[in-house]
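Quick one, T. Sequence first:
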Amino acid sequence: MREVALEQLPPQVRELFDAAQRERVLVLCDGEPFAVVYGIRFKDQEDFQLATDPEFWRMIEERRREQATIPLEQVKAELFGSGE
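Structure tokens:
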């Protein structure tokens, strides 16, 4: 992935990225959607990589389909003992 320092960009482009921290910005080319810019100021690189990784989301979907669950009382008993 290519990286660019914000300080290297012209002021107008920096303003665009500042706005993207508050809301998504749709970039048009000849009146047609071209790109979406959204801010990730409060995320780290790992958060960004996971959010854009199709394999990660496939794994999440698979886990959500699994029916195996543990009752809350069992979790409490394992964490805190049976209370006896």
